[in-house]
Inverse folding.
């Protein structure tokens, strides 16, 4: 038995990018001919595609975890890694894509619409691409970045022109089977229909689709029965057809009271912002099962009451096909009127403007977060986070290259402005991220310099003192000693201390006891 699924959670993992290669070309009589490491290939994306041949999300219900191909790693002799293939996931037309927090990301309401759900990782550069006039033979390559991992909620909202609504066993499935080539399951017990059925109806030159929505009961908008679960399939319909059972044997039920219950449930259901409320859409009433004599009599009795309320009423029989032709043409008129209104709205619809990224947009931001052992400085930005992911921290030259890139981006200046000092804890990326004990003068050789910013102690001149300078320094020391002896003599002559007193005190001083 086929199962209908209209809501499912997908767990997607895009392919990771391949690592770059660090290689040196070797030739005869030329063992070191320069770097020739190729780049890693990009990982494949995961794309959702609206496909009219798909009618349910059942396949994703059974296997919700999907992943795309990884990028190949680079190789020597300038051989780049293979690019991972994209994974295209066909979904029914009318699928709404939401993130884990429930925010709507895409509405695939038209055939062929595509949405990149997860982007593949970027391949790392090989040392051939990293070489320059200043770095002729890099001894490292960049790593590939991991692909995106996301959880998405897919919600199917059937795209149909007309929705058949009514109580269970009102004859909606029989009606759609009689008006179209659809073959829904039909039985003589309530809740036979467990999922919406679509049928294509032709009325003259007009062709439209009809959706058979599972039966509504009182309290459906509050989650009772199956109605609330499938009311979302009515949101996209242009018109509503109330199918009322005139041959019901349930006590206390009649077509007028059934219509009142259905109208209250449709009014209580909240449609998304920007859509027309369900009760404000064109509505027709079909009094079904008039092939039964008592049902025909009841239909003729309530017809006038319903017409006084402003409804256009049709007496039909899904079993004998009586009245279906007139009903089909009436529905076709409503659909054509709605299509003309939508065409005018599309003509006046504002264009989508794609604005490029601002030239002066910030590449990153520095946040100061308090911690147990002092302030923590967090660097957030697409570029710094990607550069950290591409760095091989087992290679000192690669770490130095990362420091150069961060410095050119202005990360060090921003950290200085935020109040960071040497030894401060810096985290790049959200969450745990990559933690560093920050040293503001990291260079491409991964050396720590203690000189002022903008200076390099390796470039300082180590000049040797001349003979004259050494002689002048010697005379200065001798003059200082002579001045010190003269000061002591003046103090002795003034009676401040005597030679015997100084000798006694000196003999008791620490470290002088053993002097002879």
């Amino acid at each position: 038995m086929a199962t209908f699924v209209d809501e499912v959670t997908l767990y997607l993992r895009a392919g990771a990018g391949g690592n770059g290669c660090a290689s040196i070309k070797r030739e005869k009589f030329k063992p070191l001919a320069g770097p020739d490491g190729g780049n890693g290939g990009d990982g494949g994306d995961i794309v959702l595609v609206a496909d009219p041949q798909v009618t349910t999300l059942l396949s994703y219900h059974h296997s919700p975890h999907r992943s795309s191909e990884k990028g190949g790693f680079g190789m020597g002799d300038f051989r780049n890694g293979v690019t991972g293939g994209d994974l295209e996931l066909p979904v029914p037309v009318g699928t709404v894509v939401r993130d884990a927090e429930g925010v709507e990301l895409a509405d695939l309401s038209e055939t062929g619409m595509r949405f990149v759900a997860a982007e593949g990782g970027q391949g790392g550069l090989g040392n051939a691409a990293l070489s320059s006039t200043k770095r002729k033979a890099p001894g490292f390559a960049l790593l590939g970045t991991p692909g995106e991992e996301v959880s998405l909620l897919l919600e199917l909202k059937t795209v149909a022109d007309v929705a058949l609504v009514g109580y269970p066993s009102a004859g909606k499935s029989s009606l759609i089977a009689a008006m179209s080539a659809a073959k829904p399951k039909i039985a003589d017990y309530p809740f036979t229909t467990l999922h919406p059925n679509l049928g294509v109806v032709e009325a003259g030159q007009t062709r439209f689709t009809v959706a058979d929505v599972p039966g509504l009961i009182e309290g459906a908008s509050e989650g009772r029965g199956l109605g609330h679960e499938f009311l979302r399939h009515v949101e996209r319909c242009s018109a509503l057809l109330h199918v009322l059972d005139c041959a019901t044997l349930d006590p206390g039920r009649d077509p007028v009271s059934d219509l009142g219950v259905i109208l209250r449930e449709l009014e209580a259901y909240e449609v998304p912002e920007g859509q027309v409320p369900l009760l404000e859409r064109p509505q027709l009433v079909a009094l079904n099962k008039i092939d039964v004599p008592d049902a025909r009599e009841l239909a003729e009795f309530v017809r006038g009451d319903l017409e006084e309320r402003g409804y256009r009423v049709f007496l039909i029989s899904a079993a004998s096909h009586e009245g279906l032709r007139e009903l089909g043409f009436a529905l076709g008129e409503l659909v054509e009127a709605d299509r003309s209104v939508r065409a005018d709205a599309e003509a006046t619809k504002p264009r989508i403007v794609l604005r490029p990224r601002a030239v002066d947009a910030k590449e990153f931001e520095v946040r100061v977060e308090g911690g147990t052992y002092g302030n923590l400085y967090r660097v957030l930005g697409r570029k710094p986070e990607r550069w950290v992911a591409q760095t091989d921290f087992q290679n000192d030259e690669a770490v130095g290259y990362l420091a150069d890139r961060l410095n050119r981006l202005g990360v060090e200046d921003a950290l200085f402005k935020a109040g960071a000092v040497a030894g401060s804890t810096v985290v790049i990326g959200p969450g745990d991220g990559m933690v560093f004990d920050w040293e503001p003068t990291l260079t491409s050789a991964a050396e720590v310099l203690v000189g002022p910013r903008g200076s390099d102690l390796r470039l300082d001149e180590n000049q040797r003192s001349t003979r004259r300078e050494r002689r002048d320094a010697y005379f200065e020391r001798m003059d200082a000693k002579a001045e010190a002896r003269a000061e002591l003599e003046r103090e002795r002559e003034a009676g401040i201390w005597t030679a015997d007193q100084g000798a006694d005190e000196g003999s008791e001083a620490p470290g002088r006891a053993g002097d002879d």
Summary: The CA atoms of residues 235 and 273 lie 11 Å apart. The chain has three domains: 7-156, 162-348, 363-485. Residues 467-493 form the longest helix (27 residues).
